[in-house]
Amino acid sequence: MNSNIVRNIALALLIGAATQVVAAPAPVTELSKSGQGTSLERLERLLEARNQVQLDMQRQLNQLASEMDQLRGLVERNSYDLSQMLERQRELYREVDTLSQQPQKAAKKDSADKPGSGESYSGDVSENEAYEKAVNLILKKKDYAGAVTAFNAFLTTYPESTYKANAHYWLGQLYFTQNQLAEASKEFKAVTSDEKSNKRSDALLKLGVIAERSKDVELAKKYYQEVISTYPSSTSSRQAEGSLKQLGN
Question: Which sign, positive or negative, has the C-alpha torsion 209, 211, 216, 221?
Fold first, then answer.
């Protein structure tokens, strides 16, 4: 075999090897680059979606917590209002019990004030009946709305009645129990204008309570001090002293 033949064979072998190298498939890593990029993008999207879900859940939890706080505050406020209403009802019932224990006396037309009581009795039968009917709406029927109507009608019919101060007092109590403070204040002031009324000390005390609930502390102190100075030995005076201490005086 001459050198030309050998050289041609070698050249053919080299050309074949080179062709195989060029035609060889690309490495796996090269082929999977595009697929790997797609997987990473998909994973990132999943992570972002999960994070968004967590944020949404956190916002919902925060909103629920806020609503729970509002509901808790509302429940506490309703509980306080209920306790205040019950206390006002107890005050009315105590007054009703006190009145029910007092004998209802009928007097003659020329009857005078009962000594030491500050109360007098009318000789007008219809006046006595109208007043007794209004009182019984509280004592017997527990019809407080009806009692308000009856007492207002009584005062209109008998504006100068001997029971005038008491009628105003009971209207004040009824309005006070219903938390109608402006109306109650008007009625209690009418009672205090009668210095002979045995309800005057308690009416002054109630005016102090109304002023205190209306956030007028100075006016409340004024009423409490008037009760103490004018009726020093009364139950109302002791209650006024306790209220003044709570107000820091």
Answer: negative
Whether the CB-CB separation of 206 and 243 falls below 8 Å is answered with: no
Check residue 226 and give its pLDDT.
96
Q: What is the pLDDT of residues 164-199, one digit of tens each?
A: 999 999 999 999 999 999 999 999 999 999 999 999
**Identity (one letter) of the amino acid at 7?**
R
Taking the C-alpha atoms of residue 17 and residue 117, their distance in angstroms, rounded to an integer, is 135
d(CA 103, CA 85) in angstroms, rounded, equals 29
**What does the pLDDT look like over 13-61, one tens digit per residue?**
545 544 444 444 444 444 444 555 577 788 778 888 888 888 888 888 8
DSSP H/E element including 243: helix 235-246
Angle separating helix axes 164-177 and 33-100, nearest 10 degrees: 160
Q: If you search the block for the tokens 């009802």, which residue do you land on?
A: 89
- CA within 13 Å, CB half, 32: 6
What is the pTM for the complete model shown? 0.56
Residues contacting residue 227 through CB under 8 Å, at least 6 positions apart: 201, 204, 205, 208, 234, 236, 237, 239, 240
- Cα–Cα distance, 113 to 119 (Å, whole number): 6
